[in-house]
Amino acid sequence: MKVTIIGAGNLGTHLAKAFFEKGIVISQVFSRKKEKAQTLAQIVGADAISNLENIEKTADLYLLTVSDDAISQVSRQLSTHLNLSLVVHTSGATSSLVFSDYFSRFGVFYPLQTFKADQKVDFSEVPLCIYGKREKDQKLLLQLAAQLSQSVHAIDDDQRATLHVAAVFANNFTNHLFHISQSLLAEKEVDFRLLLPLIQTTFEKIKTQHAMEVQTGPAIRSDHQTVHKHIEELSGHPVYQKIYRVISKSINPKLDKL
Amino acid sequence: MKVTIIGAGNLGTHLAKAFFEKGIVISQVFSRKKEKAQTLAQIVGADAISNLENIEKTADLYLLTVSDDAISQVSRQLSTHLNLSLVVHTSGATSSLVFSDYFSRFGVFYPLQTFKADQKVDFSEVPLCIYGKREKDQKLLLQLAAQLSQSVHAIDDDQRATLHVAAVFANNFTNHLFHISQSLLAEKEVDFRLLLPLIQTTFEKIKTQHAMEVQTGPAIRSDHQTVHKHIEELSGHPVYQKIYRVISKSINPKLDKL
């Protein structure tokens, strides 16, 4: 198995290293920035290229780790050099159909985790969402993924699109609610860490239970008095008030007059 | 130190047991439901009463664990029997001023955690938010709390009100976002557990960092294309669309035309 990595950013670097450590040959590393390509190529024993004209056709897999916006353009450029090769991207937000004009064998290799440049990633726990347009390619990608992670999932375009928006709610938006909570407490010089055990409990619950069944708080109890008190408490923060109202109503549609 | 517990619900039961285990004497247990009072009283070696007329004046602390709505009424009834005693409630949502018409010595003993009837609680990790109107009483309450927990905090009414609304954002509302995420994924038969490593990472980050500084996702990146794709993806769920819009705008006010 020979893999060529297109893009030497965070994800490209982490994946190339992880493959290399598992004994998978990295054939070439491409980055428009020559130095970046060289740095990574050296680590994983690959050739560095900074011009797609120099791409070799001999790899078994071309793994695009470029930004979402660049996938289509890079594919067009690649297509003049590759045609019977398997090409995948690593994007949660991009349909595999982005490839359909350029390649006959394509798919997705999407790691569902955020990566930092300076932190080593243990891929064994990272869910890898795999799709191959052709059944044989999907099988190959699933096998490759299984060498990296214990959590490998066949996820089609439609499922991945939903997964991506679901991740925004469960991850990006919850983080913003933590920010709101932190900023409210900072104003009163209360330590946010007081809330950590409560948050931990909620997190433990949703590992095994439906969040709906463990919902607590004034909204689900139809505790109008507390809900109104909270909205008043937020009077200095009209945006937070709006969020409070919208989510409370979503928790309990019977709460009107919010 | 002798404590009388008013209310034999979840919290009353857990607190009475925890005090009892630490060698603190539980004098009486009150519940309107005689059987409930008796069950708990027996466990903690106390007398059971179901009529406040039978309350004894000799306890050092009267701990109200009744529902928020009942605090005022129970206080009025108690006030004819107690006047120089220390009375506290256990509510995050109620000002200590609820007591001011009835008692001269009052305060709050608020455990910041949810409790289930059937699960043993380890109070050592539960943040206890303490307030005493009189300094001496606050000191006594802090000492009592320190026998139960390593996480004891002097929190006044104003701070506790903010803490309560901050907990709604960080706990109740995040749980609802997990519910939205779960329900979206269930529709496409995708396992919610795929998101757990990502959620875990976010949770680990906010233990030590400002959530604002670790915010990720399309909104903070001003990635209009993905934001609009997500809103379209949610077309079958107008309430979720609304939540998506409101939180995205709060994350990044420059995202207009949502």
Would you write up a description of this structure?
The structure is a homodimer of 258-residue chains. The first copy, chain A, has 258 residues and is of the alpha/beta class. In chain A, 44% of the residues lie in helices and 14% in strands. In chain A, helix 7 runs antiparallel to helix 8. Chain A starts with a strand and ends in a 7-residue tail after the last helix. The model of chain A has no long low-confidence stretch (mean pLDDT 95). At the A-B interface, helix 5, helix 6, helix 7 and helix 8 of A face helix 5, helix 6, helix 7 and helix 8 of B.
Q: Topology as H/E string of chain A?
A: EHEHEEHEEEHEHHHH
Distance between the termini of chain A: 60 Å
Low-confidence stretches of chain A: none
- Sheet-strand content of chain A, in percent, reads 5-15%
Provide the structure class of chain A.
alpha/beta
* Major protein interface: A-B, 87 and 87 residues
Helix % of chain A is 40-55%
Q: Describe the biggest sheet of chain A?
A: 8 strands, mixed
Tell me, what's the shape of chain A?
elongated
Number of strands of chain A: 8
Strand order of the largest sheet of chain A: 3-2-1-4-5-6-7-8
Nutshell version of this structure?
2 copies of one chain form a homodimer. Chain A is an alpha/beta fold. Helix content of chain A is 44%, strand content 14%.
